[in-house]
Amino acid sequence: MQPDIIPNKRKSRSSRKERSQTQSPLLPGLPDELAISCLMWVARVEHPNMRLVCKRWNRLLSGNYYYSLRKKFGMAEEWVYVLKRDRDQKLSWYAFDPVNQLWKSLPPLPPEYSEAVGFGCAVLNGCYLYLFGGKDPVHGSMRRVVFYNARINKWLRAPDMLQKRHFFGSCVINNCLYVAGGECEGIQRTLRSAEVYDPNRNRWSCIAEMSTGMVPSIGVVHDGMWFLKGLNSHRQVVSEVYLPASKMWSTTGNEMVTGWRNPSISFGGWLYSADCRDGCKLKSLQ
Q: 13-72 domain in CATH 2.60.40?
């Protein structure tokens, strides 16, 4: 995950020039355009310290323009984010900087997620780490959605999901977040419902229901389709595929799904699956 840009109208060069004439320069003795060209070379690990220098630097690193330049010139740095659960069942997040070989702890999670189980995780817009749904030990299933903003190093709220659910399937297609199935307290424990979150509209919408309720165990987006496999309310193995183009679900029993038992990822048109029954091996399928 890396600090990316959010689509919006960029301020013109003239407006930035007019504004810079009424305030102190980013770097004394240099025009702001040249100063930004220098500052964008600073490593991402130093950005929190840069924000403390002055208000103008803080605004620069909180906006889109700085990171759009870093991305344009190939300077965006991707970090790895890892979730840890300790012996007391408390959750915490850490980020790993592969360039400098450094670990960095994220701010504490919102209270409702400090001991949650069965929630989903996804990255949208390249810089927002979302946590959604799940089950709180005290209050049960949740609709709650929070996200971590990598640029300002804070957890923030997002619109709640339409349905409480935990142990569900989730994926990202075209920068939209999809969730389906799972469980919820009540009469209808195993869910058929599905919904999608569009970050540009900042809202959740219902999509077609699956043909049967399912608690997914594995899922992957491959060849533009979302495959899910899990157990229905009778503890039978079921599998379905969602086609975004038609916005419909269908049952599937092709070769890929039949022998699918392990976490998988799709990359470059190939489906890779980890098989650790007899020593860890990586299987591939096109």
A: no
Q: What is the pLDDT of residues 4-37, one digit of tens each?
A: 544 444 555 555 555 545 678 999 999 999 999 9
- What are the domain boundaries of the chain? 13-72, 117-285
Residue pair 145/193 in contact (Cβ under 8 Å)? The answer is no
pLDDT for position 279? 63
pLDDT of residue 216: 94
Q: What is the pLDDT of residues 232-268, one digit of tens each?
A: 999 999 999 999 999 999 988 766 666 677 788 888 8
CATH fourth-level superfamily of 117-285: Kelch-type beta propeller (2.120.10.80)
